[in-house]
Amino acid sequence: MKLSETATKQFIDSWPIARLATLNADGSPHQVPVVFVHYAGLFWSPVDGKTKRTGELTRIENAMANPHASLLLDHYAEDWSQLWWLRIDVELQVVRLSDDAKRSVQTTTSDVVDALRRKYSQYETVPVLRDPPTLLSMRPLNISSWCASA
């Protein structure tokens, strides 16, 4: 059975983690957990200040090569009547902030950063964006869901 519209909206607005699936250049899947926020009809995920390998992240490289991806929000419980998942097929765009960025982009991303800070208390001590400031913008194309019970 599908998740209700109310449950879908609630999970999109409050669920703390998603798995982002992109495709590597060789066509193999690449899936990583990401934090995200839903703002102005788009999903956003930062390249934040948590420890990462150096250089460009694979998800960013993949997004630049192929903008099609999906986000998966899910819940597992020993009580299988509580299981659910929500898959959001998205079109990715890499947003890099610079002094040259248009004012509308800077305003939107500033609002997104504020929304991320409100959602994740960890951003009180971890920078929301690392250098170079980069976000993934994700336009939803299709939403699918399943739940074990109403």
How does this model look, in words?
This protein has 150 residues and is of the alpha+beta class. It has one domain: Pnp Oxidase, Chain A (Roll). It contains three helices and seven strands, in the order αββββαββαβ. It has a seven-stranded antiparallel beta sheet, sandwiched between helices. The longest helix has 17 residues. It is globular and about 45 Å long. The mean pLDDT is 92.
List the keywords.
150 residues, alpha+beta, Pnp Oxidase, Chain A, 7-stranded antiparallel sheet
Topology, pairings included?
Blueprint: H1 5-14, E1 18-23, E2 29-34, E3 37-39, E4 42-46, H2 58-65, E5 68-75, E6 84-96, H3 103-119, E7 134-147
Antiparallel strand pairs: 1-2, 1-5, 3-4, 4-7, 5-6, 6-7
What structural class do you assign from the helix and strand content?
alpha+beta
Say what the CATH topology is.
Pnp Oxidase, Chain A
Counting DSSP E segments of at least 2 residues, the number of strands comes to: 7
Helicity range: 10-25%
What is the total number of structural domains? 1
Please outline the major beta sheet: 7 strands, antiparallel
Overall outline: globular
Q: What is the C-level CATH assignment?
A: Mainly Beta
**Beta-strand content bin:** 35-45%
Q: Any guess at the CATH architecture?
A: Roll
Arithmetic mean pLDDT:
92
- Distance between the ends: 8 Å
Q: Evaluate the radius of gyration.
A: 16 Å
N-to-C order of helices and strands:
HEEEEHEEHE
Q: List low-pLDDT spans.
A: none
CATH level-4 homologous superfamily: Electron Transport, Fmn-binding Protein, Chain A
Summarize the structure.
This protein starts with a helix and ends with a strand.
